[in-house]
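Bumping my old thread because nobody answered last time. Still need a sequence for this structure:
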């Protein structure tokens, strides 16, 4: 892969990169389409990164379908699909970690402390291997996007980070590879997550500015469906992820909920009226 990247660069070609864990849905494809328009050569990676899963999490059952992924990649104009083996990315002697101090202490990092170290370590490695000029990440993983931007700034990594909006099913459910774990009933219950965000937007439009009130309402909506539990609901600063109590500027509302045993995340940037 590094040799391909060097060849592209020597020939003056611009490389765009979309790192993924596979099992493609429209969300992945929208990242690839955006990346394809930004460069000459489009490289994607498919790698279910063991470093970002805790021993209790779904590494072994994480959905995989390489044949279908490769067909989608081809249709979407991908030039190279990089699919490393775990042993080659993390040989026995591997001991380096890339980690950030502050941003991972919020939201998903609280109950999944290994997650972002795993993400930043693998993304650094992939950047060094693929040598992209630009990389595209989804806004559904908003915290991941902020963390990657911060890492790239902090370490002077010469890759431009672009983002693309969350792809949703027609009824609003954010697309996720983990949606494939949901039964038909759970699929209905999962909609509560999007409804809780929509309701927050409505409340803000009606003039409610107190985050506690909006979060309580969101909690009620999610818990009103059988089998749902809340991991977190936060209203926070769009750059630092620190809590915001009174909404007087654009904020991030981020939700993580369990639908049965399936953990889903979603978010929305809420913009108070005078800021629009
Ligand atoms: O968002 C993902 O799918 C993963 O976290 C990423 C960026 C591919 C790193 O493993």
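Sorry it took so long. Here it is:
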């Amino acid at each position: 892969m590094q040799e391909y990247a060097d060849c592209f660069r020597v020939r003056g070609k611009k490389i765009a990169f979309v790192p993924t864990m596979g099992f493609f849905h429209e969300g992945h494809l929208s990242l690839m389409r955006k990346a394809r328009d930004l460069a000459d050569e489009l490289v994607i990676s498919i790698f279910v990164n063991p470093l970002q899963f805790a021993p209790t999490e779904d590494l072994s059952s994480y959905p995989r379908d390489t044949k279908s992924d490769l067909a989608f990649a081809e249709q979407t104009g991908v030039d190279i699909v990089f699919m490393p083996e775990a042993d080659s990315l993390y040989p026995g002697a591997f001991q380096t970690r890339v980690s950030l101090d502050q941003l991972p202490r919020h939201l998903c990092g609280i109950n999944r402390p290994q997650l972002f170290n795993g993400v930043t370590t693998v993304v650094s490695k992939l950047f060094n291997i693929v040598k992209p000029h630009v990389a595209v990440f989804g806004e559904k993983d908003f915290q991941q996007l902020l963390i990657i931007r911060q890492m790239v700034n902090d370490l002077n990594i010469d890759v431009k980070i672009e983002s693309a909006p969350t792809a949703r099913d027609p009824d609003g459910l954010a697309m996720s590879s983990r949606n494939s774990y949901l039964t038909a009933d759970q699929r209905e219950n999962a909609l509560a997550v999007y409804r809780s965000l929509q309701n927050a937007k409505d409340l803000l439009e009606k003039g409610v500015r107190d985050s506690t009130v909006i979060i309580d309402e969101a909690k009620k909506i999610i818990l009103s469906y059988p089998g749902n539990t809340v991991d977190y609901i936060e209203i926070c600063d769009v750059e630092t992820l620190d809590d915001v109590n009174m909404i007087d500027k654009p904020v991030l509302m981020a939700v993580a909920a369990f639908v049965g045993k399936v953990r889903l995340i979603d978010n929305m940037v809420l913009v108070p009226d005078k800021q629009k």
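Residues 184-205 form the longest helix (22 residues). Let me know if any region looks off to you.
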